[in-house]
Amino acid sequence: MQLTLEFGGGLELLCDSKKIHDVNIELQNGEDKLTMKDLLSWVRTNLIKERPEMFMKGDTVRPGVLVLVNDCDWELSGQLDTSLEEKDVVVFISTLHGG
Amino acid sequence: MEGEGERERKRGGRVCCVCNEARASVKRPKTLQHMCRECFFHAFESEIHHLILNNSLFSPGERVAIGASGGKDSTVLAYVLSKLNRLHNYGLHLFLLSVDEGITGYRDDSLQTVHRNHLQYQLPLQVVSYKDLYGWTMDQIVDVIGFKNNCTFCGVFRRQALDRGAALLKVDKLVTGHNADDIAETVLLNLLRGDVARLSRCTSITTGEDGIYSPNAYRGFAREFIKDLERIRPRAILDIIKSGENFRISTTTKMPEQGTCQRCGYISSQKWCKACVLLDGLNRGLPKLGIGRSRGSVGSENGNGSKVEKSIQGKQCGTLDF
Ligand SMILES: [Zn+2]
Ligand SMILES: [Zn+2]
Question: Is A29 a domain residue?
């Protein structure tokens, strides 16, 4: 599944200082959908190069990290249960640094 | 982006509870309302407008400097204030005030953002440098005192810089932007103050960028706590601020009397303000003069380095204004 992932507010520093990542995620054995929960663990394994604790806490994002799925706060779409579709845009912004 | 509307329909995104038309983009922590982008902006801006009116914050014709750091808080402030000034004819002469510490490379990004704010919101920009304010750039100070001890200078100079810049430019008012998370954190830290001072002495605070440029490094713990609370109860942050406000009002303790520095006129409870003490030391070639004074001896040049450094940083960290 093709997705565009964007990291901001300092999170880009955890993944090679690159803000925008166009990624292609292979769905696991026969599954035809991908949830945010799946995406987070994929990101943690494949994109985050250092200090993963700045990005995640437990199985979700660290409190203070804003998540937008297609410009919409993921709180409105079910957070970890949000199901993603082809060409979705997911943005992660840390609000913890720099007023 | 093409097909986005269609995709959202398919997904059945929620509708804004204010206009009942547009797709909701945020769940506002303050009210838990689902709102679209436009309705959120409108609510936010009109709340600030009423806050300004109710507290009579400004009078027509005033020169108002907006403290601009390039960060999100000051960017939002610059945007909202310039918009409201235009929309409601406040009659304010607004401009952006930015401080350049004179640390090579350090401000490049943020000054760039400030420059963008200047173009985007059509606000005049004034940059004052540490050289203008203190006669020394931060790089020059580091050259004299070394990299590790400049935390004290950083904290003291930065805290005064905007005020001094505003005075230099003869403004009537200086406004600075802060977010609810930061204020709630400060309230909590103020409540914990006694314990925190002890904590900072016995806990080693790592040196490096974080220790030097954000002296309140241990703030992170309070921040994490606040964000955890927010997850359980989104209004918690505003409630903490509220309790801080009440705390302040109900206090019966006599506040220490504020005098002014005999040298520069800045508010100070001592004869000279902290910055003037530090500057005096720098100018006389005794840069460690003001450091750790209230904490007893600082130790010689490099002896006992890490301990001194720790106590300096601990001291810095006990200062809870922002
Ligand atoms: Zn709306
Ligand atoms: Zn002074």
Answer: yes
CATH of the domain at A9: 3.10.20.30
B26 and chain A in contact, CB less than 8 A: yes
Sign of CA dihedral B60, B61, B62, B64: positive
- Domains in chain A: how many in total? 1
Which among B83, B73, B26 has a CA at the least distance from the CA of B49? B83
| pLDDT tens for each residue of B209-267 | 233 333 454 566 777 788 888 888 888 888 877 777 665 443 344 555 667 888 888 87
Helix (H) or strand (E) holding B199: helix B193-202
Cβ A80 vs Cβ A36: under 8 Å = yes
Q: Do B227 and A64 touch (CB under 8 A)?
A: yes
CATH 3.40.50.620 region(s) of chain B? 57-177
Supply the ipTM of this predicted assembly.
0.84
Q: How far is the CA of B275 from the centre of ligand 2 (A)?
A: 6
Q: What is the pLDDT of residues B270-305, one digit of tens each?
A: 888 888 888 888 888 776 666 654 433 333 333 332
Strand partners, B93: B63
- Which of residues B270 and A8 earns the better pLDDT score? A8
Chain position carrying tokens 């900072």 = B200
Annotated binding-site members of B for ATP: 67-69, 73, 99, 177, 182
Check residue B220 and give its pLDDT. 65
Q: Which of B298, B184, B119 is nearest to A63 (CA)?
A: B184
Q: Which domain holds residue A76?
A: 2-94
Helix (H) or strand (E) segment spanning residue B93:
strand B93-100
Residue A99 lies in a domain: no
β strands within chain A, DSSP E: 2-8, 20-24, 34-35, 56-57, 60-61, 65-69, 72-73, 83-84, 89-94
Residues near ion ligand 1 (Cβ under 5 Å): B 16, 18-19, 22, 36, 39
Fold of B57-177: Rossmann fold (3.40.50)
Question: Do the domain assignments include residue A32?
Answer: yes
